[in-house]
Amino acid sequence: MSSSDPITDYGFTAVPSSSATLAADAPATPAPFLAVTELPIPTTPLARRINEYAKSCLPEPTYNHSLRVYHFGLAIKRYRFPEWTLTDETYFLACLLHDIGTTSEHLRATKLSFEFFGGLKTLEVLQHSSSAEGSDAVAPKDQAEGVAEAVIRHQDLCQKGKITALGQLLQLATIFDNTGAYANLVHPSTIEDVSKHFPRLQWSNCFVSTINEEIRLKPWAHSTTLGEKEFPERILGNTLMAPYE
Predict the structure, then answer these.
(1) Longest dimension (CA), the chain
(2) Burial degree of 162 (CB within 10 A; 0-12, 13-18, 19+)
(3) Given CA atoms 116, 120, 122, 125 in this order, what sign does their dihedral have?
(4) Which of the ends of the chain has fewer CB neighbours closer than 10 A, N or C?
(5) Where is the HD/PDEase domain (predicted)?
(6) Burial of 125 (0-12, 13-18, 19+ CB in 10 A)
(7) Cα–Cα distances in angstroms (integers) from residue 238 to residues 89, 179, 182, in the given order
(8) Are the C-beta atoms of residues 244 and 68 closer than 8 Å to each other?
(9) From residue 107, how far is each of 91, 213, 229 by CA, in Å?
């Protein structure tokens, strides 16, 4: 797959790290309802391969979370950041792989924090496929690096500096699904439709258990920077998504 501009197509455009700054001054009109059918997943050979890979590796609640993040993120981008022209395929890859480091196998395979190991795994998976799958199922180097950068930084909730547009969109959508923050960016009917297609399956409890397990195994984990008690409390206190748990 060739790109006319890898900076914009693969989400490298630099934007503020502060999601609060970006989410401020929302348009006067409310977010429109966007059904899942209006936000289809990509069907390129690469997208199909990574979708199958993610589905085979991730527990169902995590896989469903990844797809909710995709649909919520596209809804946010269309409403609030239409100038971000990263491809849907690139964002889809980031969504599918952002929690690849949280599997039980991967948590125990490394002393790296799950996002960092996930970024390394992302580079590996995106740039290597079987000969039967063909070159169309391999990500270009720039695309693979853009996705890996976003995966590594998706819990890097800084208030200063810059992040890639891909990384920021992934952050906004994961924060939205995990804690219910920035509820005004997505129409309530969109939340209902996405949650119906990709059930939460007690996602809040599942994710908190994973975070607690990582911190038990790795007291130095990057997840601790979000607050060892505060972050799980925010997740479990997600009233926006509680009706769909």
Answers:
(1) 51
(2) middle
(3) negative
(4) C
(5) 58-188
(6) buried
(7) 29, 5, 12
(8) no
(9) 24, 9, 20
The pTM is what? 0.95
Compute the C-alpha angle 242/194/241, nearest 5°. 10
pLDDT (tens digit, 9 = 90+) per residue, 57-96? Answer: 999 999 999 999 999 999 999 999 999 999 999 999 999 9
Identity at 194, one-letter amino acid code: V
Closest C-alpha among 113, 112, 126, 102 to residue 174: 102
- For CA atoms 239, 178, 36, 16, the dihedral sign is positive
CA proximity to 1, closest of 174, 119, 140, 132: 140
For 28-74, the DSSP string reads: SSPPPP--GGGSPPP-SHHHHHHHHHHHHHS-HHHHHHHHHHHHHHH
- For β-strands 14-16 and 162-164, DSSP reports them as antiparallel
CB contact set of 123 (below 8 Å; sequence gap of 6+)? 144, 145, 148
Spatial separation of the C-alpha atoms in residues 236 and 179, rounded to whole Å: 8
Rounded Cα distance between 78 and 83, Å, is 9
Q: What is the pLDDT of residues 30-65, one digit of tens each?
A: 999 999 999 999 999 999 999 999 999 999 999 999
Partners of 15 in the β-ladder: 163
Could you tell me if 93 and 47 are in contact, meaning their C-beta atoms sit under 8 angstroms apart? yes
Please answer whether residues 34 and 190 qualify as being in contact, where contact means their C-beta atoms are separated by less than 8 angstroms: yes
Token representation of residue 38? 């209006």
The span from the CA of 188 to the CA of 165, in Å, is 24
